[in-house]
Amino acid sequence: MVSLQLTLLAALLLGGHTAQAVQEPIFFHLIQISYFVNQSWTQHQGSGWLGDIQTHGWDNETGTIIFLRAWSKGNFSDEELIDIELLLRVYFIGLTREAQDYASQLHFKYPFEVQVVIGCELHSSGIAKGYLQAAYQGSDFLNFQNMSWVPSSKSDSRAQSVCDLLNQYEAIKETVHRLSTNTCFRFALGLLDAGKVDLQKQVKPEAWLSSSASPAPGRLLLVCHVSGFYPKPVWVMWMRGEKEQLGTQRSDVLPHADGTWYLRVTLDVATREVAGLYCRVKHSSLGGQDLVLYWGHQLSMYLILLAVILPLILLIVIALWFKKRCSYQDIP
Ligand SMILES: *[C@@H]1O[C@H](CO)[C@@H](O)[C@H](O)[C@H]1NC(C)=O
Ligand SMILES: *[C@@H]1O[C@H](CO)[C@@H](O)[C@H](O)[C@H]1NC(C)=O
Ligand SMILES: *[C@@H]1O[C@H](CO)[C@@H](O)[C@H](O)[C@H]1NC(C)=O
Ligand SMILES: *[C@@H]1O[C@H](CO)[C@@H](O)[C@H](O)[C@H]1NC(C)=O
User: Fold this and answer.
1) Please, are residues 255 and 42 in contact by the beta-carbon 8 Å criterion?
2) What are phi and psi of 206, to 5 degrees?
3) At a CB cut-off of 8 Å and minimum separation 6, what does 36 contact?
4) How far is it, in rounded angstroms, from Cα 59 to Cα 88?
5) Residue nearest ligand 2's atom 3 by CA
6) Which domains, from first to last, does the chain contain?
7) What is the pTM for the complete model shown?
8) Spacing, Cα 33 to ligand 1 middle (Å)
9) Residue 310: how many CB atoms within 10 A of its CB?
10) Ligand 1 pocket: which of 35, 36, 39, 40 to mutate (most atoms <8 Å of CB)?
């Protein structure tokens, strides 16, 4: 069933010019970051993500879901969403209490931070799977696999203790399983459909070049900035002729506040070898018309200026010289 719907959605979303509009696999997940500052002060941050787009937030004070997009409810009824909200509220209150009760017993020292991601992954091949992973102080701690809690390979004996504790509760296991599979699959598919206009949008990148001194003398760090594009997949390369420059370094793709993306791509090169280098940008919004920015063009702009200004100066000098000569000749 999921497979059939995915095939239909894939045809809908991945068809035509928007081949890269939705990244594969599609995933939806909730991210929880909890700060346990001391015995009495806890704060939970929650967010929902469809791929790289944030769709939901969580208000810790009121214990309610924040719907960030017009389509953030997907096709779920208000009743089902209220049930989920209630479940999350009970979970956060329970977690706060359990953490306070067990912190000293399990040697969790305040302040500490817990991160949890729960969600599902859908492939257009029809493969779909749910997952839950938790981290303590930024390191993998435990995950939920095959209906049971398992400590991460790098975690310590505390993770085993927490898993032993959690594994006693069948109802929690069933709830986590249901949320990360059936509920997540249905919700993600409904969201994809409801948000397709936003998800299929195409925003063209702007690109510009700059340079900075490389640490080594006689070398230059060329920087190609690509900014304001959507969706996220982008190909940027420093090239000479048809040859990709192997020294090209890519930064992380960073988000702008408006949901578009930014990236910088650098090349460390000997100053005398910069001529003929250019930065090429491929993006789905460009419809096959790659952006091409020659480093040399900036140079030739100076040359053009020089070519205009030099003769001008020369002319002025000659004119002045003639004027002077004429005025000498005027003297009898
Ligand atoms: C716990 O942390 C909060 C926030 O930093 C602080 O205001 C509060 O006084 C602390 N309480 C105790 C008992 O240390
Ligand atoms: C956050 O939520 C938890 C659980 O509902 C609650 O105990 C805590 O006081 C809240 N923290 C803040 C800062 O509102
Ligand atoms: C999951 O559990 C079932 C039955 O307990 C077992 O047959 C299967 O091999 C397990 N799968 C994984 C990936 O551990
Ligand atoms: C929402 O859409 C999905 C995918 O089309 C479907 O499986 C589901 O039954 C729909 N409704 C609800 C309430 O989940």
Assistant:
1) no
2) -105, 145
3) 42, 99, 100, 103, 108, 110, 111, 112, 113, 114
4) 11
5) 93
6) 1-200 (3.30.500.10), 206-296 (2.60.40.10)
7) 0.75
8) 19
9) 10
10) 40
**C-alpha 314: how far from chain center:** 55
List, in sequence order, every beta strand (DSSP E) within the chain.
Answer: 26-38, 41-50, 53-59, 64-67, 112-122, 128-136, 139-145, 148-151, 206-213, 219-229, 235-240, 243-244, 249-250, 254-255, 261-270, 277-282, 291-294
Return per-residue pLDDT of the chain as tens, 332 residues: 444 455 445 544 444 333 344 457 889 999 999 999 999 999 999 999 998 889 999 999 999 999 999 999 999 999 999 999 999 999 999 999 999 888 989 999 999 999 999 999 999 888 899 999 999 999 999 999 999 999 999 888 999 999 999 999 999 999 999 999 999 999 999 999 999 988 889 999 999 999 987 778 889 999 999 999 999 999 999 999 999 999 999 999 999 988 899 999 999 999 999 999 999 999 999 999 999 999 976 555 556 666 777 778 888 877 888 777 766 665 55
Residues 210, 266: Cα–Cα separation, whole Å: 10
Does ligand 2 come within 6 angstroms of the Cβ of 63? Answer: yes
Picking from 235, 241, 246, the residue whose alpha carbon sits closest to that of residue 283 is 235
State both tokens at 24.
């594969």
